[in-house]
Each structure stands twice: as C-alpha cells, then as structure tokens.
C-alpha cells in the first residue's frame, strides 16, 4: 500500500482545538500514516506573528505530547528562510520519494487565498491539497478558484491511488475556534479554557504571551 503522509502547516499562534481535532479527524478518515504539524517560521503572507517560531513550535509540541498519530515537523524553522509551502512540499517529496502520497492540509479560509501563494501552480506537482470547511467561509461558485477546484477535484480514494495532483474536500466536525480569538481573550484577561490544551494555556500564562497577566487564573 502507498504510504500516505499529511502535512498540516500553520502559524499556530497558538495551536488550538480547532487544529488538533481537524488533524485527528483526518487521520481517522484517511488513515494517514503520518500527520506532520509544521509551524511556519517566517510567513510572507501575513504580519510577523507576535510570538517567535521556536515558542509556537514548543506549544505544538506540548499540545501533541503523547499523541500516537500527530508529530511536530520543524523543517520550516530549520530552513530559516521565508516559509513557503511549495518548499516544504518539495523537501518532503525529496525525502519520501515519488511513490508516497503527500497531502497538504488546509482550512477553507487558507484555500480561498491559494492563488496568491508563492509558486502555487507547482503545489499539485508535489502533492495533493486536502481542504476542510471552516465555519464562516464558503467556496465561491464561480471564478478562477472554483474552476481550478472543479478541474482538480476528486474523491478521497485518490489519496490512496495517486501520489499527487488532486484536490480533495473532506468533512470534519466544525469547531469555530481561532487563534485570533484566543489572543484577544488572553489580552482581555478572559478565560480561554476548553479552546486549547491546558498545557498550552499554562505555557502562555507562564510566559505572559499575548498580554497574559498572572499565571492562569484559577477562577477561569
Ligand atoms: N477552527 C478551524 N477549522 C478549520 N480549519 C482551521 C481552524 N483553525 C485553523 N484552521 C486551519 O489551520 C491552518 C492553520 O491556521 P492558523 O494557524 O492560521 O490558525 P487560525 O486560527 O486561523 O489563526 P489566526 O486567527 O491567527 O489566523 C489553516 O489552514 C487554517 O485554515
Ligand atoms: O507558500 C505560501 O505562499 C503560503 C501562503 C499562505 C499560507 N501558506 C501556508 O498555509 C498555512 C496556513 O497559513 P495561516 O496563515 O492560516 O497560518 C501555513 O503553513 C502557511 O505557511 C503558505
């Protein structure tokens, strides 16, 4: 059977249950052999994250500690340069060889901006794109992305059958959680409990990230 590897890139500032449950749901639906969480080091598509990549990676590590299926991949930190998904996929393809099925995972909000990504036309030569819905976002019915989606769209089984080249949309449970909301709640001194793992909440509180005040308030 073809080895199936998933690459789930994100700013993870911080990682939350929206990311984690999405990753786990996909591992179970697709039987990925690996699900690699790849924190981006220097994003060129958004403002500099307020927290250094080393710390964002550490929060990923804390979040997945003990998970048998999710792993942290720090390739973008090690590369040290601007973080482009095309480079990450190319590096993984070189490592894994031509047979492996490689899937780049993204939420619909990220997919909507795909045509602004660096060398985005090359992504499907290196892997598949697996897109999951995100509350508040909808696929356009017409336009260049809708055309691209129709041209390359396929059913899940293609992830077994081909190493690259297709776009697959998968249903996962919708969790309306964002890192932006977690940063805002933290800065306002409001509780973020149940939105992200406790170990990550403690890390944020202990280091005063996102304007966190005293260590995690017991009343919250
Ligand atoms: N709740 C969610 N449901 C589905 N996809 C999600 C969810 N949260 C994040 N994603 C996806 O995870 C990837 C990484 O997201 P990212 O780290 O930017 O989190 P975020 O919550 O969107 O952060 P921010 O609010 O800072 O933009 C993206 O592909 C994004 O679409
Ligand atoms: O390669 C690009 O040009 C590119 C442009 C936008 C987003 N990405 C990647 O998409 C992933 C999700 O991005 P974000 O901003 O939602 O965290 C993350 O791994 C980014 O590096 C990549």
UniProtKB/TrEMBL annotation:
A matching Pfam family: CTP_transf_like
Pathway involvement of the protein, from the record: Cofactor biosynthesis; NAD(+) biosynthesis; deamido-NAD(+) from nicotinate D-ribonucleotide: step 1/1
Top enzyme category: transferase
EC id: 2.7.7.18
Keywords assigned: ATP-binding, NAD, Nucleotide-binding, Nucleotidyltransferase, Pyridine nucleotide biosynthesis, Transferase
The keyword ATP-binding is assigned to this record: yes
Domain of life: Bacteria
Domain (Cytidyltransferase-like): residue spans on this chain: 7-184
Reaction catalyzed: nicotinate beta-D-ribonucleotide + ATP + H(+) = deamido-NAD(+) + diphosphate
Alphabetized GO MF terms: ATP binding; nicotinate-nucleotide adenylyltransferase activity
Biological process annotations from GO: NAD+ biosynthetic process
Matches recorded under PANTHER family: NICOTINATE-NUCLEOTIDE ADENYLYLTRANSFERASE-RELATED, PHOSPHOPANTETHEINE ADENYLYLTRANSFERASE
Function: Catalyzes the reversible adenylation of nicotinate mononucleotide (NaMN) to nicotinic acid adenine dinucleotide (NaAD).
Family affiliation: Belongs to the NadD family.
NCBIfam families: nicotinate (nicotinamide) nucleotide adenylyltransferase (TIGR00482), PRK00071.1-1 (NF000839), PRK00071.1-3 (NF000840)
Listed name of the protein: Probable nicotinate-nucleotide adenylyltransferase
Annotated source species: Gilvimarinus xylanilyticus
Name of encoding gene: nadD
